[in-house]
């Protein structure tokens, strides 16, 4: 059976180590049937791949990649890694996102720009040819 790749941006791993009962972790294991019997390969990404749970990274059909959606060089490296894998992508799930709620006159412009960079330009970088 042909192997397919799925690129999953596992951004919450950077925040808290993402325990096995974390919703993102459950999504990866249940929705994508990650495990030895799966017929596809999953590329899990994070700004800090070392924080992706070992319960995922030790599976034979999972590859952890570094990806910071705000860094064009990081995006290019992730794209090259996908191309080197050879199977292409049939699905991309983006969970990279940031939030910032503040009264407009109190907004820190640098922080607001970083949120926009992550939430708007980051996904655009990953979806452009």
From TrEMBL:
Which Gene Ontology cellular-component terms appear in the entry? Answer: endoplasmic reticulum; lipid droplet
Do the record's keywords include Oxidoreductase? Answer: yes
Region feature (Disordered): 1-27
Q: Which SUPFAM superfamilies match?
A: NAD(P)-binding Rossmann-fold domains
State where composition is biased (Polar residues).
1-17
* GO MF entries: acylglycerone-phosphate reductase (NADP+) activity; triacylglycerol lipase activity
Q: Which GO terms describe its biological process?
A: phosphatidic acid biosynthetic process; triglyceride catabolic process
Query: Keywords on this record?
Result: Oxidoreductase
What family classification does the UniProt entry report for this protein? Belongs to the short-chain dehydrogenases/reductases (SDR) family.
Protein name as it appears in the record: NAD(P)-binding protein
């Amino acid at each position: 059976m042909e192997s397919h790749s799925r690129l999953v941006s596992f951004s919450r791993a950077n925040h808290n180590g993402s325990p096995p009962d974390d919703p993102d972790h459950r999504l990866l294991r249940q929705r994508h049937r990650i495990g030895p019997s799966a017929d596809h390969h999953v590329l899990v990404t994070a700004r800090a791949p070392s924080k992706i749970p070992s319960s995922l990274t030790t599976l034979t059909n999972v590859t952890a990649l570094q990806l910071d959606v705000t860094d064009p060089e990081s995006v290019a490296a992730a794209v090259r890694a996908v191309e080197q894998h050879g199977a292409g992508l049939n699905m991309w799930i983006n969970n990279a996102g940031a939030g910032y709620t503040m009264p407009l006159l109190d907004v820190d412009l640098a922080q607001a720009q970083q949120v926009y960079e992550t939430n708007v330009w980051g996904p655009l970088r990953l979806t452009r040819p």
